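Section handout 9: paired folding examples.
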Amino acid sequence: MVVTLGAAGCLYLARDAEPLTVPAPRVTAVDSTGAGDTFAGALAVALGEGRPMREALGWAATAAALSVQRAGASASMPYRSEIEEHHTP
């Protein structure tokens, strides 16, 4: 289970595993509309590519952090190249 925590990042919980907390990049938020959808979509892409959970969560958090810096929902979703540019594994 993944619990998004806004500016505090996210928490991953799995049976028989230690909880995993991944921080969110620090940004100035303009509009959080669509941030959860952006996070979920980016997480699905990262996991589909076979990235380890910690890295996938960090990549998704980067995508969501980029999206909250822009107004709107779908218009605020970053391109893959933007996520790659800002994500530090």
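Moving on to protein 2 of 2.
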Amino acid sequence: MSAIVPTAARADVEPAPGVDLGEIFRDSKVGEVLEGLDRDLVGLLPVKQRTREIAAFLLVSKARERQGLATGAPPLHMCFTGNPGTGKTTVARRMAEILHRLGYVRKGHLVDVTRDDLVGQYIGHTAPRTKDVLKRAMGGVLFIDEAYYLYRPENERDYGQEAIEILLQAMENQRDDLVVILAGYKDRMDTFFRSNPGMSSRVAHHIDFPDFTDAELDAIARLMLERMQYRFAPAAAAAMREYILQRRGQPNFANARSIRNALDRARLRQANRLFEEGGMATREALETIAESDVRASRVFAGLADAAPR
């Protein structure tokens, strides 16, 4: 009996033409999204790398499909873990764009929800709420922040488990039309997955978002101001660096979110200062955050109290 020779190895059969991965990449315009991540987000290098790896995996899956190779529906559900303000929602929006441009979701929109959007307060309330959210998310990405709050075993009358069961069914049966991204603190998400193995088995991609360094938070502050057409006076820039050092050690620190809140308050103080000064306000004055606008923060009050009298 003659040996069976694979088709691709037989000399009398022309091999199938290759697939130009570069062409697929260019046609999808995924590169624009990845470039936007590099341009708009400071730091997060491990996150950006994992995002590129997922994009490459999905692109190659498309190439395999064109060559008639077995692919199946690639696993797309994800988990983003990290502290508040580390860019999870922002990256989720970009991921929705990538999935849409590669043809894995029809619309590419993001529906951002928490437990309160899914779980009802009484019997018969949870199922319609959860199904309504799923309906809005179909064709795109459902982002569930602090997803571990769905599971509250200490409360036997909690309806979170009902929402989880409906989500599990949708993640399995509608996986060709819906991608779910669960997000939250890493330790709590680990506990959530241990308690809900069905959910764990459906989530293929785990991305951990590191805290920003002080230098990265400083760069984020300057980038945020630039986008709002403000700038720091030199002394204000130095004060902001001190603010970052002090704020990190205080309760409820939320990385970039805390920086954005600090800048919003500094802009309010600047506006109040200019109003009280009265007279003509030059363009330079209108766009400049002064040192006093930053140091008026309560973050510095503790330093003043601790200073020698």
